[in-house]
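worker-03 picked up job from queue 'complexes'. Input manifest follows; two sequence lines, order preserved.
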Amino acid sequence: MTVPAQEEPRVRAYDLVLAEVEQGIATGRLRVGDRLPSERDLAQQLGVSRASVREAVRVLEAMGVVRSSVGHGPDGGTVLTTGSSTALTRLLRLHIGLANFPMPDVIETRVMLERWSCRLAAQFATPAEIDRLRETLAAMERPAISRGEFNDLDTRFHVQIAEAGHNRMVADMTTAIRDAMSWWIRFSFDEVAEWDGLAEELRASHAGVVEAIAARRPLRAADRIEAHIRAAYGALLWTREVG
Amino acid sequence: MTVPAQEEPRVRAYDLVLAEVEQGIATGRLRVGDRLPSERDLAQQLGVSRASVREAVRVLEAMGVVRSSVGHGPDGGTVLTTGSSTALTRLLRLHIGLANFPMPDVIETRVMLERWSCRLAAQFATPAEIDRLRETLAAMERPAISRGEFNDLDTRFHVQIAEAGHNRMVADMTTAIRDAMSWWIRFSFDEVAEWDGLAEELRASHAGVVEAIAARRPLRAADRIEAHIRAAYGALLWTREVG
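worker-03 finished. Artifact:
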């Protein structure tokens, strides 16, 4: 008979610290800009080790909820902050990487998010936001542009559309997914044999989307971004399969 | 002249460990079910302390990427896993709590996600999935049901619709947002003076959504879920403002 592996206890010390902070946030006791008690005070208050407090703070940092800095005085300590987009990007990138989200689901989700953003952008984008989209298009036209630069600008284009939709949560989700896919898309760009042709197609469909947004045509903008996303993934997945 | 607070160095030890695991996942070297090297081996390999490795593992646990268990043999160690929904819920709950996402944006995002799920559910839900939705409706009809039980079933209803849409990423996002709102909705339910009337309205609009899904009418289902979500938040926000 083998001895069964020892079971981990249900509630671990760092979970107590997390729960304390989460409750404070849920009830409105802790707000952005507030400072957490010191590592030593939190450890004493909750009856856990300072190492456990530090583990919990690392988790909160990775979730974009707190920012820590060394030092005393007004700039030191652990402060509640805003940083949802980066944390969401990291989370989605990890789970897309682990294939916890299958690729077809990710593509459909992008279609949903970006159709929504385009419709809102066509209604509410400011002239300055439309100008920024046109600047990104212009930068992607540069003749000597590398595939890496093209990919960075392509990411920026989709993030700018999401931001022009003026919904923080949709924008963060769009940014996170596009960012999470960036490595994969960059890799696929490198595999494409007919790069010039693909780049030209992507530029043309981007321009069509911006035109529809500028013309204040929400449905046309939504249909064009959907066609663009599907065509782009089609071209890249095809490359990956046969390349 | 005051001495400036000491700046935190850019790259911290636990970030090195996170970056190592993230790169392994991004390149496909690490997959679900794989085991990470032991704390001691990782610490040696990356030249960091074991405490730093443990901090990184806590972050990965909180993100739903690894599961740790004490003990040796096949069940011990830190294993790559699937657990995106819980981690996403925690992340969104924290950021909604911190008001990093304004409430109107959260409501619009729910409308977007659930319209999408309803359209897909009306096309692809299996008969068993439609039966489960009807069971949830029936459970919500119980005369002596408490507001807390009602809220739990209400959450289940929205999660079941998302699952019937058969898109993992959209379902996880829907679940995460509904879960993240659960505390707030529960609290608002308690404040409602005309509870019986509100519960009856919610039941009727839920039933209308399920009817449209069962009748395979995607647009009708989407329009009904949107009307339901907007009406529910309208009633609850109005209660919070005047209550």
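worker-03 released lock.
Residues 13-80 of chain A form a domain with the Arc Repressor Mutant, subunit A fold (CATH 1.10.10.10).
The mean pLDDT of chain A is 86.
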